[in-house]
Amino acid sequence: MKPTALGTVLIADDEDHIRKALRITLTRAGYDVLEAEDGDAAIALMQNPASAAAVDVLLCDLQMPNRDGMETIGEFKSRFPLVPIVILTGAPDFVLTEVILKQGVTDYLLKPVSEKKMLSVIGVAVRLHKLRVEQGG
């Protein structure tokens, strides 16, 4: 019997090798992982009620084709307000600060991110989600 996962992380990043590295690290740490190659795919995945109910945190790149991170974050905050969002970016700048302050993003990680830092931030975000759900929003 498979042990219960610590939580489910939805990774939205257009770079296959980044998603693969994150997936390996997170699954080894005990998380379930869903993957999307861009914001459109992440939103589409959340249309499935089982997926939407399972996701504890969105780990989202800012620079992606189709629907970029900014648009994806706005859509998630609107449609899935209990799901914490962690930004994953290789280009920190003033926009990042604006997103965090105005969009209610939980935290951010700079590429390349250390395994220890990522697991710490994801752990906090998953616990935050579980608390929000328990409190009913």
Can you give a write-up of this model?
Helix 1 links the parallel strand 1 (8-12) and strand 2 (32-36). The protein has one domain: Response regulator (Rossmann fold, 3-Layer(aba) Sandwich), CATH 3.40.50.2300. The longest helix is centred in the last third of the chain and has 20 residues, at 115-134. It is of the alpha/beta class and 137 residues long. It has helices at residues 16-29, 39-45, 49-54, 69-79, 94-103, 115-134, and strands at 8-12, 32-36, 57-61, 85-89, 107-110. Strands 2-1-3-4-5 form a five-stranded parallel sheet, with helices on both faces. Helix 2 (39-45) packs parallel to helix 4 (69-79). The chain is built from six helices and five strands, in the order βαβααβαβαβα. The protein is globular and about 35 Å long.
The gist of it:
This protein has one domain (8-134): Rossmann fold (3-Layer(aba) Sandwich). It contains 6 helices and 5 strands, in the order βαβααβαβαβα.
Q: Key terms for this structure?
A:
137 residues; alpha/beta; Rossmann fold; five-stranded parallel beta sheet
Helix content: 40-55%
Rg value: 14 Å
The secondary-structure class comes to alpha/beta
**Which architecture per CATH?**
3-Layer(aba) Sandwich
What is the H level of CATH, i.e. the homologous superfamily? Answer: Response regulator
What is the fold-level CATH name, i.e. the topology?
A: Rossmann fold
Q: End-to-end distance, in Å?
A: 32 Å
General form: globular
- Which strands sit side by side, in order, in the main sheet? 2-1-3-4-5
Total number of β-strand segments?
A: 5
Taken as a percent bin, the fraction of beta residues is: 15-25%
Counted up, domains total 1
Order of helices and strands: EHEHHEHEHEH
- Helix segment tally: 6
Overall pLDDT level: 89
Biggest sheet descriptor: 5 strands, parallel
